[in-house]
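Kindly inspect this chain:
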Amino acid sequence: MLGKIKPNYSAVVRQYDVDPITVKAAYLRAQSDKTAVIRNRRSRRSKLDRYQDIIEGKYAAGCSAGSI
């Protein structure tokens, strides 16, 4: 990253065997002086949340996976 010369992404990809998007993101992150990417994840409820008590009860009773 000398001056305003952009790196050859293809050469870096071949050298380090990584995804080109990863190389470009790392380059842009280094240019903007950010150290980490923070992504917000949505917290989703599982389809099994409603049945958690039943599943735990059957598991504790030693039931087979098919019956659970």
Notes: The mean pLDDT is 86.
